[in-house]
Amino acid sequence: MTTTTTTEDTPRASKVPLLELDNVSCEYKLNGGGRFRAVSNVSLQLGRSEVLGLVGESGCGKSTLAKLICGLEKTAGGTITFESHPVKPLGLGRRPKNLLGVQMVFQNPYASLNPRRRIRDQLTDALALDPEHNWTVESLLEAVDLPLDAAQRFSHSFSGGQRQRIAIARALAAGPKVLVGDEPIASLDAFLQARIARMMRDLAIDSGASMIFISHDLSVVRDIADRVAVMEAGNIVEVGSTDQIWNDPQHPYTKKLLAAIPKVDGKGIIPG
């Protein structure tokens, strides 16, 4: 499959990548025999203080790629490095300290929090992962626009949008250098989606972290990403600055995705 990559510099990206994927693949065994390749020979770089949007239709391999980056899946080939350290699949033991700088916000806020523990306890556990943290439980709740008394409550008393904000706070508490959002707004209503996405970007950049934001909502990605990678059937088919992807898309699949967006999104006409 043809891959289109632009080489434009972005103001936030460093010349030395914070995170690098080199020819990464992932395969799954099929029940009837054979193997399915969910990710195929993907190469990507993430700079420091950069937001990279990863877009594509459902089932294209975006979430699998996110799990590979966080060590939640095993590669079938290629390498992933974070600050020059190889990212390896997590075993039964604790996560290696050198990989604690990669934290993930999952799609389902109802499953990502422990229903038996108060929010304060869950945030305190995350704070313990970063001995040099500048956060407190209270400052984390303020950062994600939640009342301080939320610390004493359990997750079942919060709405989906509030739970996702707690999940973001917990990820930030660990002091990540890379925040991976795996469709973090997909389960939220349209009113909240843009707000949560912008909140994630602002909090990541303000804390000195980079972010990979995965979504099938191109309009939201356009608003928060410095660069965009387009994924189709396990392959990255185009990478470029956000402006380039929207104003001068090169790959037919990218053009197809853009053509499916309503022509007016509040920022003018999108090429169709």
TrEMBL record:
Positions of the ABC transporter domain? 19-258
Q: Does the keyword ATP-binding apply?
A: yes
Asked if the Swiss-Prot or TrEMBL record annotates the protein with the keyword Transferase, the reply is no
Record keywords: ATP-binding, Nucleotide-binding, Transport
Q: What are the recorded GO MF terms, alphabetically?
A: ATP binding; ATP hydrolysis activity
Record GO biological process: peptide transport; transmembrane transport
The protein's matches in InterPro entries, at most eight in alphabetical order, are given as: AAA+_ATPase, ABC_transp_ATP-bind, ABC_transporter-like_ATP-bd, ABC_transporter-like_CS, Oligopep_ABC_C, P-loop_NTPase
Family listed:
Belongs to the ABC transporter superfamily.
Report what the protein is called: ABC transporter ATP-binding protein
Protein species of origin:
Brevibacterium aurantiacum
